[in-house]
Amino acid sequence: MENYNAKRLESRILEAVNTLIVNGDIKNPSLSRFANATDIELSKDNSFARIYVSCLEDNRLEKSVAALQSASGFIQARLAKILKTRNTPKLVFEADTTQREASRVNDLLESLKK
Fold first, then answer.
1. pTM of the model as a whole
2. Which of 62, 74, 88, 93 could link 80 by a cystine bridge, Cβ 3.0 to 4.6 Å?
3. For residue 35, what are the β-bridge partners?
4. What is the SS3 assignment for 27?
5. Helix or strand (DSSP H, E) at 109
């Protein structure tokens, strides 16, 4: 049952962060509207959340992550209103480069076939 609650909280946090990005509630010109939160790692006591961010525009990924990190206090305050839990996790944003790495590996495999 505890695992179910953690997974539900993770999905609610991801949904809320993505909604803030899409709606333009985070007023930072460095943040790409094509950025999205893809994955989350929540600590066992729900005090920290590491959120992985990807972006369709590869050249703006690092700027978008930095923009989200600088707005983490604002996002955490909005999460507190949405989640209504006793404690709101402290947020840390990181770049999710799995798509880029998968593409690079596929290109390498294709070059080996030729």
1. 0.83
2. 88
3. 55
4. coil
5. helix 98-113
* Domain housing 99: 2-113
Q: Tell me if 114 sits within 8 A of 99, measured CB to CB.
A: no
Cα dihedral 102, 104, 110, 112, rounded to 10, equals -120
For the chain, the residue count is 114
Q: How many helices (H) and strands (E) does the chain have?
A: 4, 3
Higher pLDDT, 98 or 12: 12
Burial of 31 (0-12, 13-18, 19+ CB in 10 A): buried
- Supply the CATH number for residue 35's domain: 3.30.300.20
Span 56-68, average pLDDT: 87
Q: Count of domains in the chain?
A: 1
C-alpha span between 17 and 42 (Å, rounded): 14
Q: Which two tokens stand for residue 89?
A: 């996790």
The β-bridge partners of 40 are 51
CA distances from 87 to 22, 77, 79, 92 (A): 25, 11, 10, 16
Please answer whether residues 55 and 67 qualify as being in contact, where contact means their C-beta atoms are separated by less than 8 angstroms.
no
